[in-house]
Design a protein that fits this description.
With 314 residues, the protein is an alpha/beta fold. The chain is 45% helix and 10% strand. The longest helix has 25 residues, at 8-32.
Length: 314
């Protein structure tokens, strides 16, 4: 068997396409939302796609990822089925959770997306528990938990960092730091730095400031995942990113007065999903057709029946 070095251009194209898919899916959600066909609140990842794409790229099939209510990007980056996602948003039986989970609780266990939760920080201890199971069972899995900067203010976050460090568990903590918890900035909420806090527990930690660069995020994640597989101990990655839309819903919210539009403009000046116009033009027709098919699947999927109400309930 001949070793073949992967073509960096192919890798860039693949990651770019996934990031653009996420962007165009969420733009379609924005278009659909006023019609009320989407049956749950939505928390959009526009501006933050590169984090999910970069974090998921080095993961193996049996690695597990636990996300948050802002989970569209991780679901798609991990390989979740687009048809089933749209049907779930529509509340249809063809959805990944038969229409019961909606946008905030997406899961695709078959590809290692173990679920997301509307409760801030609640998936973090689930990931630590899965990492404990992986260590006990000696599966060589890496468990990833992705969360926002607001989650670092919850008690269970600190308990999880401590437990993972104390017991040497194979978990990667990924903080998507967009600087906001709803409308409150970091300066209004935190007297600490997240990176220092993680190190206080003895967890090696690093920060990336170019949260639009999916290749840099993928490279950093790959290095951390390799370290975790080697020694079985936790690592921490903080990525500075930018939330372009309101906390919940499809609109912009710069009129609320808690942030300035210049921050959006600065981010968009570096956003490859805006700046790389040639690649966008080449890939958009194919991706748009894929989204059209997923929307059609969702519309054609039946509604749940009364007998489905308590199915899959334990």
């Amino acid at each position: 068997m001949t070793d073949v070095t992967p073509d960096p251009k192919d890798r860039h194209d693949r990651l770019f396409r996934t990031a653009l898919l996420i962007r165009l899916v969420e733009e379609r959600i924005i278009d659909l939302y006023p019609s009320d066909c989407i049956q749950s609140p939505v928390h959009l990842s526009i501006g933050q796609e590169a984090v999910a794409v970069g974090v998921c790229e080095p993961l193996q099939r049996n690695d597990l990822l636990f996300g948050t209510y802002r989970g569209h990007a991780y679901y798609l980056a991990r390989g979740g089925d687009l048809n089933a996602m749209f049907a779930e948003l529509f509340g249809k039986i063809g959805g990944v959770s038969k229409g019961k989970a909606g946008s905030m609780h997406l899961a695709a266990p078959a590809v290692g997306m173990m679920g997301s939760s509307a409760v801030v920080a609640s998936a973090i201890p689930h990931a630590v528990g899965a990492a404990l199971a992986a260590r006990v069972r000696n599966t060589n899995q890496v468990i990833v938990t992705a969360f926002g900067d607001g989650a670092t203010e919850e008690g269970v976050y600190h308990e999880s960092l401590n437990f993972a460090a104390l017991h040497g568990l194979p978990v990667l903590f990924v903080c998507e730091n967009n600087g906001l918890a709803v409308h409150a900035s970091l300066a209004e909420r935190q007297a600490y730095r997240m990176i220092d806090q993680a190190r206080l527990y003895g967890i090696p930690a690093e920060t990336l400031t170019d949260g639009w660069d999916f290749l840099a995020i993928a490279d950093a994640t790959d290095a951390l995942v390799r370290e975790i597989r080697r020694d079985g101990r936790p690592r921490y990655l903080e990525v500075a990113t930018y939330r372009s839309r309101e906390h919940v819903g499809p609109a912009e919210d710069f009129g609320a007065g808690y942030r300035r539009r210049i921050g959006l403009e600065d981010w968009q000046d570096r956003d490859p999903l805006i700046q790389d116009t040639d690649r966008i033009a080449r890939l958009t027709p194919e991706i748009t057709a894929e989204i059209d098919r997923a929307e059609a699947f969702a519309r054609a999927s039946p509604w749940p029946e009364h007998e489905d109400l308590l199915s899959d309930v334990v």
